[in-house]
Design goal:
Number of domains: 1
CATH architecture: Orthogonal Bundle
Shape: globular
Oligomer: single chain
Strand content: under 5%
Number of helices: 9
Helix content: 55-70%
Largest sheet: none
CATH topology: Lysozyme
């Protein structure tokens, strides 16, 4: 518990310190095609929640936790719905993605790292050339989330589900423990908030 508190305090004091710098690695044609298909910008067909009650509970709990960073209620809910959709689409825990965003950008939409990574999930621009379209905008909310979630899923596949190593690849710090531990600590915090959250603030 003490390590978790220290990690969260560190995140609050320096939200951009761990901004990402994914490293370019040559991809086979089949992997490249699969990733390109995964980030194809199609409008979500509907909700990623199983039912209304699940949406209400999750959005209420997460919105309450995020209100200090994003005061605008309407935009906050839009962001949370997009995170839940894109994470679920990529087979990721939405609260893991929330933890990663907290560490990477501190929920700053227009964050740019010293390495040039952009947006909420700090996606490196080279990914547009590798798997995207020339007019893809990494500061666009859903585009950034789709790229980020697709890239993290790609790294998890490479690492056979090893989250520690996948997170290291995502941040460009493979082999170092600091970044994966910070994301895991933030993830755990978001999970605790979900369990403790109430369902009386928002409607989905």
């Amino acid at each position: 518990m003490r390590r978790l508190i220290v990690a969260l305090l560190f995140l609050a004091l320096s939200p951009a310190l761990w901004a990402g710098a994914q490293q370019y690695e040559p991809l086979s044609a089949s992997v490249r095609a699969a990733l390109s298909g995964a980030i194809a910008d199609k409008k979500p067909p509907g909700s990623s929640f199983k039912n209304y009650a699940e949406a209400l509970a999750w959005l209420s709990a997460m919105s309450e936790r995020l209100s200090g960073r994003i005061p605008d209620q309407e935009y906050r809910l839009e962001l949370l719905r997009a995170i839940h959709y894109e994470a679920t689409r990529a087979g990721l825990d939405p609260q893991l993605v929330l933890g990663l965003i907290q560490v990477e950008s501190g929920f700053r939409k227009y964050a740019v790292s010293s390495a040039g990574a952009r947006g909420y999930m700090q996606v490196m621009p080279f990914w547009i050339k590798v798997i995207g379209q020339p007019d893809d905008n990494l500061f666009h909310l859903r585009t950034n989330l789709r790229y980020g979630c697709t890239i993290l899923r790609h790294y998890l596949n490479i690492e056979n589900g090893n989250l520690f190593r996948a997170l290291g690849r995502y941040n460009g710090s493979l082999g170092r423990a600091e970044y994966p531990n910070l994301v895991k600590s933030a993830w755990e915090r978001w999970r605790l908030d979900s369990a403790a959250g109430s369902a009386n603030e928002q409607t989905p």
